[in-house]
Amino acid sequence: MTKCNCKTLEEMSKELDSPFIFNQSKKTFELRLDASKQFAMSYCTFCGGDVQKFRIKFPDGCECGIVQKWANDPNLFIKRDSSEGHYYFVHQKGFAKSGDRRTPLHWCPACGNHLGKTDNQSRTEIEKFHEQLKDAKTLTQVVQILGKPDGVFIEETTDNYVIHKPSGIKDLEASNVNGITYRHLSPTVHIWVTKVRSKSGELSINAFQAKVRNPSK
């Protein structure tokens, strides 16, 4: 059984081009590696099996190395951004251009550790943002706390989310608005806040290090 407290896997597995598949017989989520291969996940790639990990635990680096092994195989859907050190799933269909949509992988689905190192300054910033948003129940409340977002996730079809500029989006609580993202609040931390459809009034808050800092600076 996959350890997940944030409910993001449950929501994303319902999408046509989702990286995640729910195996009903095994009661576990699987990560799609290619068109025919799946990996049974022990941990959620969004919360690591425990939403409190973002606040109190930052295990640095995947111990098993399996995600890096997948990224080294050009035939798999798992890739690594060498400039920022992030791992992500590349969607294969349902979008205007192949590869337009990426789903980040923050925690290893095998060992549950954080994928990549999070430096102390970024940890402090991530903890600060989670503390600020701990009582937020709606996207409108998030904006009241953090200010105008840099992007708004709009559901255009059942399997297609497009990031729009916030100008022109009048109602953040509309049914087709899935979430918002912030990049300008910190040079090294990005924030994604999305609605948890299965539970009204809940938000999934993902704050993660956006790029690897130069340790010499």
Q: How helical, in percent, are the residues?
A: 10-25%
Distance between the termini: 43 Å
Low-confidence stretches: 94-99, 212-217
In DSSP terms (H or I, runs of 4 or more residues), the helix count works out at 5
Mean pLDDT value: 78
Order of helices and strands: HEEEHHEEEHHEEEEE
Rg result = 17 Å
**Strand arrangement across the biggest beta sheet:** 8-7-9-10-11
Main beta sheet: 5 strands, antiparallel
Structural classification: alpha+beta
Into which percentage range does the β-strand content fall? 25-35%
Outline type? globular
Number of strands: 11
Could you characterize the architecture of this molecule?
- The chain is of the alpha+beta class.
- The protein contains 5 helices and 11 strands; from the N terminus they run H-E-E-E-H-H-E-E-E-H-H-E-E-E-E-E.
- The strands form 3 sheets. The protein has a 5-stranded antiparallel β-sheet, with helices on one face. Strands 1-2-3 form a 3-stranded antiparallel β-sheet.
- A hairpin with a 4-residue loop joins strand 1 and strand 2.
- The longest helix has 14 residues.
- The C terminus is likely disordered.
SSE inventory with pairings:
Layout: H1 8-12, E1 20-23, E2 28-32, E3 38-40, H2 53-56, H3 66-71, E4 78-81, E5 86-90, E6 102-105, H4 120-133, H5 139-146, E7 151-157, E8 160-164, E9 177-182, E10 189-195, E11 203-209
Antiparallel strand pairs: 1-2, 2-3, 4-5, 5-6, 7-8, 7-9, 9-10, 10-11
